[in-house]
Write a structure and sequence with these properties.
Helices cover about 35% and strands about 25% of the residues. The protein is built from 14 helices and 27 strands. Helix 2 crosses helix 6 and helix 9 crosses helix 12. The protein binds one RNA strand of 78 nucleotides through strand 13, helix 10 and helix 11.
Amino acid sequence: MADKITPRAQDYPQWYLDIVKQAGLADNSDVRGCMVIKPTGFALWENMQRALDRLFKATGHVNAYFPLFIPISYLAKEEEMAEGFAKECAVVTHHRLKAEKGKGLYVDPEAKLEEPLVVRPTSETIIWRTYKDWIQSYRDLPILVNQWANVVRWEMRTRLFLRTAEFLWQEGHTAHATQAEAEEETLRMVRIYQQFAEEFMAMPVLVGPKTEGQKFPGAIYTLCIEALMQDGKALQAGTSHFLGQNFAKAFDVTFQNDKGQREYAWATSWGASTRLIGGLIMTHSDDNGLVVPPRLAHTHVAICPLGKTDEERSASLAAAEKLAAELRGLPRCEFFGYEPLTVKVDQAFDKSPGFRYAEYELRGVPVRVEIGPKDLEKSACAVARRDRPGKDGKAFGVPLAGAAQHIDQLLRDIQASLFNRAKEFRESTTRTARTYDEFKEMIELPGFIWAHWDGTRATEDRIQEETKATIRCLPYDGPSEPGTCMISGQPSARPVVFARAY
RNA sequence: CGGGGUGUAGCUCAGCCUGGCUAGAGCGCGUGGUUUGGGACCACGAAGUCGCAGGUUCGAAUCCUGUCACCCCGACCA
């Protein structure tokens, strides 16, 4: 028997770690705060990348790549950003080692860099330095570039996927001729993140601006998507920033408009990272293991042929291969990214059936099919859906004729049911606080809290200090009636959403 | 940076207080056999500089000093 997964109810953080490790997604590495993303985990990321990349391209973006190293003087140019990231930057100061017998390998003091290079914590500065060379005229705009990259933020405390010192992400950096166009882009991209989260990850999100205190350093404002994890804590899952002309001014990026006047370009940036994998886990998985929504699954269907004798096994195996071929041969469609379904025929006859079932549950394969002698007598198979773990989700007697179509539909049903379940959980744990006392009681419960806030930093800070809750965002969709701040009694245009967060 | 803890086989840990023969267990791994419709079992086997350095001692995983690393709590955290 494999190591047990700690039940969620007993110790949620330990459950999360157990899932990550036992489903084979990632491991801690020898380098503090950095992780090894294993093939199974990386496959999830690749599927996320593929889906997001399609959405970006469909909205006119192209990919490019900028350097890992940023001269320290670039980072210094935008004051807010310099201040915001100063405490978490890795810095390269030398370009050579020396190997000497007896002394081993050491940094060559002769090889000190003229100017230290910062390992990018984010790429606005190096990219805007580059855009200075790309932009002369309004005809050069907009620039709609995205890059897939790794970044380093030297965090004090890390957690696999949710916060690691090095992480993988995409960062979009766009330049526009007008403020209105840049603001449209900012909104467009946060809505793309929402679409991705909800349609692919089956993870419902709130969408809206961050408060002044929570925005990205260097931004005019930050829009975000906020998801709710099963333990009732919020997770910021993607951000889109309107940067105004801050970076254009810092790097002197101007263009001539159609009237021949010089203007500074308008900027946006937006990013989502491997943190999404953490969000995916904490939205759907259960005490039996990982649960992956079919649209992001690396293996859609696992077929387990059964049998005690060679004759039984070869008959089951033949039926399994036939079904696998039918599944792979289903018409390609948008829902699965125009790729064929991935089907694994499991031939581990030396393992007990129970072990094989548990293994696919642990790894989050959305649909498992069992074909044994008893099924073949009836030309049928057993089909188990991962969103309902154990025997509850298993249906016997599914006719082999038409099984492929049945499973295709089942995968779509699972995708929808995961989203609905997550949304119901969010709705059932979302509360409205009318007074601060009420709020303090509610914050001890899982979930989001709507409450009125006077819009000041002081009130926001006080609430955080006293309750550890932060304003997650000022959602676009939701109640909008005015009221009064639960603390100061000052007028509030509309309620905002609080939660404790990752 | 403050507080606490842990370093012994791939993993989880026992042994340390009270020094002593060849350093142990479970899981995992390898080989062979019996099993197989919800995490099978038997037999045999491989595998450890006891984090590192120094000291005390006839003798150190065990005692002392130093050091490094990691984990947890806090502070910090697009």
